[in-house]
Amino acid sequence: MLAGAILVVSAFSCGFDGFKKQAAPAGRFLVEITPPLMLVYASLTLGYILVIDFAGFVPSSALFLFLSILYLYRKGPVISLLVSVNALALIYIVFRVVFKVILPEGSLFE
Questions:
Q1: What pLDDT does residue 23 have?
Q2: What residue ranges do the domains of the chain occupy?
Q3: Is 87 helix (H, G, I), strand (E, B) or coil?
Q4: Distance CA 31, CA 40 (A)
């Protein structure tokens, strides 16, 4: 209840601050609400959601992590590959080995 009350107060506070500010110039609304970074990352996320059923957790997560790190970190494909493989290995060990969670395999490997 306390967390809900804090969220309501915060929403009203943000709303009042928004009404006080001057409106964005015409044509800038879409650019300010949806910057290119958000659109690209939303597209990556949508692609991940669509591919995970077909390819399974490990390959689709590896591709998603690699492309995300490559796009956001911008240090080159080798570093992106190393970071994504290490992150995926850690995720796999924690969830599959330690917690015994059954990860989706996908219809590609059936």
A1: 66
A2: 28-109
A3: helix
A4: 13
103 three-state secondary structure: coil
Residue 30 has pLDDT above 80, yes or no: no
Q: What torsion, rounded to 10 degrees, do the Cα atoms 79, 82, 85, 89 define?
A: -130
Question: By CB neighbour count within 10 A (0-12 exposed, 13-18 middle, 19+ buried), where does 48 fall?
Answer: middle
Split at pLDDT 50, 70, 90, the class of 27 is low
Nearest residue to 101 via CA among 52, 46, 57: 57
DSSP per-residue letters across 36-80: HHHHHHHHHHHHHHHHHHHH-HHHHHHHHHHHHHHHHH-S-HHHH
Structure tokens that stand for 58 in this block: 């490990």
Helices 57-73 and 36-55 cross at an angle (nearest 10°) of 160
Give the highest mean pLDDT range of 24-28, 38-42, 76-80.
76-80
